[in-house]
Specification:
3-stranded antiparallel beta sheet, alpha+beta, single chain, about 100 residues, two-stranded antiparallel sheet
Length: about 100
């Protein structure tokens, strides 16, 4: 199993003053069977947002994020946004294979 830190987004509604949607972010540990990973790619939009504003108190503004697409029962897919670069996650994935 591969331990990942998922970054979750919850909508707080529309802010008429800034004319934008407000969001709240939280972190959660998830354990994933690496055999279910279909695709991993850098989530540049989440990375850009983290540089503009603090998503999680104490989180490094230069943190990188990866979009991980996994297969689920019924041939569906699910997207997880996790903390870390695709390269780092791939290295962790390779270690689970050893």
């Amino acid at each position: 199993m591969l331990k990942l830190i998922e970054i979750r987004n919850s909508s707080l509604g529309y802010d008429t003053a800034t004319k934008s949607c407000k969001s709240s972010y939280s972190l959660k540990e998830v354990y994933l069977n690496p055999d279910h990973i279909i695709l991993m790619r850098e989530n540049t939009s989440l990375g850009s947002r983290a540089q503009r504003e603090s998503l999680i108190e104490g989180m490094d503004e230069n943190a990188s994020f990866t979009e991980v697409i996994i297969s689920t029962p019924g041939h569906m897919s699910k997207v997880l946004n996790v903390v870390g670069s695709p390269e780092k996650l791939y290295e962790d994935f390779q270690r689970t294979r050893e």
